Amino acid sequence: MSCLQMKNDGKIRVLIIQEAMGGCGRHVVDLVNGLDPLRFEITVIYGTSRMDDYYRAALPGMSQHAHMIPCSDLVRDISPKHELRALRTVARVIREFKPDVVHCHSSKAGVIGRAAVLLGGGRRMNGVRRVFYTPHAYSFQAPEFSGVKRAVFVVLERRMSRRVTDMTFNVSAGERQASLVERIDDPAKFEVVYNGIADEPVPSRAEAMRLLGLDGVIPDGAPVVGVTARLVEQKDPMTSLAVVRKVISIRPDVHVVYVGDGPYEDEMKRYCADHGIADRVHFAGYRTDAEHVVSAFDVYLLTSLYEGMPYSLVEALRAGVPIAATDTAGNDEIVQPGVNGMLFPVGDPAAGADVVIDLLDHPMPADQVRRTYLERFTVDRMLDRIAAHYVGEPMTDDTDGKETAR
């Protein structure tokens, strides 16, 4: 029997509050579409200021499983006006929906959502039984925040965790360790739940090339290094190009494909033209099928400065594509050197090029690479663990045999 007292319709009511998109948005999409509708009634308050094409395309399907409430005041930047409005919106929904469970996603939503529970008279007044939080990389981990601003973020995380949070789900062990270093709360209140994706078939290499419009552009049999990521500062795309330039200087038969868009795209194209590699580097732009066309690649490259738990690497594993990635939190829990890829230091293009060339020269079996996905990163595993916490039943963690809250 569940530890939660169910409503009259027999369902547990779950309120999800979300500001960020990207991996955070995808995680929420998977939760909404994957949780059992016979057990859970879901409402989602989501920020619209950073909505991406993936989330926008997913909204109609999500609306079949949850009541979706847009909130233009859930914004990333610090704005007292927007934050007060968002707080009022969330508090009103809590009063009206009376959720059993509140689950906040991203740092900003984590503050707003948990503050709304407190300011609305506390959990007892609102009927909230459990409060969960998934940061998807803490704000204080971002390199652009330092000094006073970083210290404020740490204090907010401590207060919200200690006063109102039952459990924080970290998407990587590195993220969990970051919380413990800052003494956010009791270590027992943090659990690693890896992002997972569905085990769907991916197209053949030839079909993926055709979908990308590169059949006939890239010669048959030419080695392909690929990236499926937003071209933004976090992904360090200029270092990625420095890696690519060195790889091409050593292996001129190599072609490189970038799937994704972002503010660095024009600068990257100029770099390619200036360094004579424009005929070897192809920009495919944003694609809704990015997770599937990864099968066109021989090696997947990611040069992130920091990560939570990048979906793109998991997608590469599912397709059996070995990974060359920076040795940073999140990446280092997906990549198993010598098994499914190799790591290199952040911001080191020479080391990155050496890794890419080594993976091209010594291919890893696709089945071996894919096996690491099946063992750790399926969406069913992720959903089972989170749903278990929502319900409040005991569960054995089959990765280490320890008993955890379910």
UniProtKB/TrEMBL annotation:
Molecular function (GO) terms for this protein are: glycosyltransferase activity
Domain of life, source organism: Bacteria
Give the Pfam families listed for this entry: Glyco_transf_4, Glycos_transf_1
What residue stretches are annotated with the Glycosyltransferase subfamily 4-like N-terminal domain?
21-198
| Keyword Magnesium among record annotations | no
Q: Which UniProt keywords apply?
A: Glycosyltransferase, Transferase
Q: Which residues form the Glycosyl transferase family domain?
A: 218-363
Q: Which InterPro entries match?
A: Glyco_trans_1 (IPR001296), Glyco_trans_4-like_N (IPR028098)
User: How is this protein named in the record?
Assistant: Glycosyltransferase
Q: Which organism is it from?
A: Bifidobacterium aerophilum
